[in-house]
Specification:
This protein is mostly helical and 100 residues long. The protein is 79% helix and 0% strand. It has one domain.
Amino acid sequence: MTQFRVFLNRMLGLVRGRRADAALQYEVQTHLDLLAAAHVRSGLSAEAARDAARRDFGGIDQVKERHRDRRGFPLLTGALSRHPLCIAQQANCTHGPNVR
């Protein structure tokens, strides 16, 4: 993908946050269902198949977080989610011992 398309997709990701999260949740659940169905076909019970599917898929929250990072601008969205006063205080601080 060109740099411009990457930038454009990330800008759209900032605007489409909740819709994109819902779509991501649906996609993850679909993958889990497909994995569980494959385990049931191989002879596991439904509950054991769901557990095996979650193990096979890996860390669901980590996958979602990586997807969100690729979808937007992590540093920008992290900064915007904090209180403006905290941001101002962090900008004015020095990274050394506080000696008076």
